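Technical annex, item 7. During the second reporting period the consortium partners agreed on a shared format for inverse folding records so that results from different sites could be compared directly. Each record opens with the tokenized structure and is followed by the designed sequence. A conforming record, contributed by the partner at site C, is shown below for reference.
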């Protein structure tokens, strides 16, 4: 909007005219949520970061404490190791996640404790082999 308020015209009248003109052009016709009630926030307390939470939900993002994020990553890595096509890849996956687990063990972050210890590579490989032998993941 590059048009400026002319001198001598009350601000409110000028704004009202801009809104009426935009409505006449149909600028408000296809807005998201048009014709729907506003979300009811009466059931929740005021949250000054409401817009951040809504944006994260819309983008499919989440924020976990570092220990919980690593716990999830470790569980995913173990599943990936059991599904790996070769022993070399199993060892690589387990070695990489063990480095992260050890780092977290020796410098605990704020938040809940990790509750994980490094995986025994030989045990994971043994279970991987068993899973391959009977055709099911460990």
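Designed sequence (site C submission):
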């Amino acid at each position: 909007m590059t048009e400026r308020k002319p001198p001598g015209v009350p601000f409110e009248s000028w704004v009202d005219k801009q809104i009426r003109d935009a409505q006449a052009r149909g600028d408000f016709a296809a807005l998201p949520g048009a014709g729907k009630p506003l979300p009811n926030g009466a059931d929740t307390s005021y949250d000054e970061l409401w817009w951040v939470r809504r944006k994260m939900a819309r983008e499919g993002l989440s924020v976990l404490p570092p220990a919980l994020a690593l716990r999830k990553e470790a569980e995913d890595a173990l599943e990936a190791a059991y599904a790996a096509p070769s022993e070399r890849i199993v060892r690589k996956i387990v070695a990489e996640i063990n480095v992260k687990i050890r780092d977290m063990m020796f410098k605990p972050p704020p938040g809940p404790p990790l509750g994980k210890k490094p995986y025994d590579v030989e045990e994971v490989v043994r279970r991987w082999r068993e899973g391959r032998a009977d055709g099911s993941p460990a």
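Helices lie at 11-25, 50-59, 66-82, 87-106, 121-134. The mean pLDDT is 83. All partners now use this format for quarterly exchanges.
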